[in-house]
Design goal:
Helices cover 33% and strands 26% of the residues. The protein contains 11 helices and 14 strands. Strand 12 and strand 13 form a beta hairpin. The longest helix is centred in the C-terminal third of the chain and has 23 residues. The chain is globular and about 60 Å long.
Length: 298
């Protein structure tokens, strides 16, 4: 048995390390080394995988010192969060907590405080785990991913960012620079709920919801789930079913049943597919109910 391939506290292979301070340097290195390079931000996933030799990059590019990738900035249209912003910074932001409670709730449930002090929002997204907690929250917030490459900056809806487990829409030589989130209108509410085997485990299933009301009618609705498909997904049929209806528990329950019908969970170490289908109804109902109450200002 080779201990370096089973359980180790060291990184058992050689690589070149770069600590850079500009996006131009990052793009230049990514273009030069391509698939042999990996981006280091928080390292909570990457370093673990390097120690286990799941991934063995020959070039490691530390982007922590790039100013444009750090921080939460209010904009005329909403807010921009740099890709290298720590999850703990998002959790501690009073503006995020008040204006985007669904994101605050999602981030607060990621790992432990020690993990959130290191992990970044960009890493949680670029890891492209189907169970990523921040992903459903950002999906219902209609977030856009800002991407930099040798051709310049481009922006795509986050719903187009996830391609499959561990796969994103990032092209070779590109990196995620930030996430832009539009401001939420009045008479709207959002909510995030999660079930895991333990309080710090990754999600067995998670749900994020957003509602905008006009009086007692649902004017807009977004529902997103994680750990129920190859990627975090929005349930468009359930959203369409709820739009234009009077908001009540019957309408919410009908949408929740559609969610259960449209997801495609698997059976794995955390839960059976049947369990996930059943629980998805309850979590969606509860998350929509909380979003409804918040839209009413309660």
């Amino acid at each position: 048995m080779n201990i370096n391939k089973v359980d180790t506290h060291i990184i058992p292979f050689r690589f070149e390390y770069y600590s850079i301070e500009s996006l131009e340097e990052a793009v230049k290195l990514l273009r030069k080394y391509g698939s042999e390079a990996s981006i280091l931000a928080g390292g909570t996933d990457l370093l673990v995988n390097m120690k286990k030799r799941i991934t063995e990059p020959k070039h490691l590019i530390n982007i922590k010192k790039i100013a444009e990738l750090n921080g939460i900035v209010e904009t005329p249209k909403g807010v921009r969060i740099g890709a290298a912003t720590k999850l703990r910074s998002i959790e501690k932001s009073e503006m995020i907590r008040k204006s985007f409670p669904v994101l605050y709730e999602a981030v607060k449930l990621i790992g432990s405080i020690q993990v959130r002090n290191m992990a970044t929002i960009g890493g949680n997204i670029c890891n492209a785990s189907p169970a990523a907690d921040s992903a459903p929250a950002l999906l219902v917030l209609d977030a856009k991913a800002e991407i930099m490459g040798q051709s310049g900056l481009r922006s795509i809806p986050l719903s187009e960012f996830f391609i499959g487990p561990g796969k994103t829409a990032l092209r070779q030589g590109e990196l995620l620079t930030g996430l832009s989130i539009p401001g939420l209108p009045e008479s709207s509410g959002s909510s995030f709920l999660k079930i895991g085997r333990t309080s710090m485990d990754i999600a067995t299933i998670n749900v994020a919801t957003f509602l905008r009301l006009r009086g007692e009618v649902v004017e807009d609705c977004r529902i997103a789930l994680g750990a129920v498909a190859p990627t975090p997904i929005r349930i468009l049929r359930a959203e369409a079913n709820l739009k234009g209806k009077m908001i009540n528990q019957d309408a919410i329950w009908e949408a929740a049943n559609i969610v259960s019908e449209d997801i495609k969970p698997i059976t794995d170490i955390r839960a059976t597919a049947e369990y996930r289908k059943n629980v998805s109804k309850i979590l969606t109902r509860d998350a929509l109910t909380v979003a409804w109450e918040r839209a009413l200002g309660r």
